[in-house]
Design brief:
This protein has helices spanning 9-20, 59-71, 108-113, 125-135, and strands at 33-38, 41-50, 75-82, 99-105, 123-124. By secondary structure, the protein is an alpha+beta fold. It has one domain (9-135). Strand 1 (33-38) and strand 2 form a beta hairpin. The chain is globular. The protein starts with 8 loop residues before the first helix and ends with a helix. The relative contact order is 0.14.
């Protein structure tokens, strides 16, 4: 588990600098990409997005899909919401706040091997935890 970020200024500054270097050095600022692994072996890439966020299959997303494809990994975008959310804004939540998850398979490997949930189906935490075990073959 990663340590809490104390000051995101270091990331913000390099991100701003990178944008000034021109169109010929594109990069994607990965906000919440997790490498799910088991026994030190990568099993999947998951980009988490709050329900109020959007999923665009733009150059940034295509680069992440390409990364996963080249690594032979399934790639998912998992949207989440908390029981405290009102549908318009993120509301304060804690680790004890009930959460729900909506999985979108982003590459063929994800669709073929691990994705069987309906497009409009939200998982509760227990279902999602079971799914995380499934992508690890457990």
């Amino acid at each position: 588990m990663s340590a809490n970020e104390r000051n995101n200024r270091r990331d913000e500054i390099i991100s701003l600098k990178h944008r000034t270097w021109g169109h010929n050095v594109p990069a994607v600022d990965i906000d919440f990409l997790l490498c799910e692994y088991d026994r030190s072996i990568a099993q999947a890439l998951i980009e988490y997005r709050h329900i109020n966020g959007t999923i665009y299959v733009d150059a940034n997303m295509k680069a992440l899909i390409n990364l996963a494809d080249r690594a032979g990994l399934p790639f998912f975008v998992v949207r989440y919401r908390y029981a405290t959310d009102d549908g318009t804004k993120w509301k304060e939540a804690t680790v004890d706040t009930e959460a729900f998850f909506w999985i979108t398979a982003m590459n063929d490997h994800a669709k073929e091997q691990f994705y069987s949930w309906g497009d409009d189906d939200w998982m509760n935490e227990e279902q999602y935890k079971t799914w995380l075990h499934k992508i690890r073959g457990r």
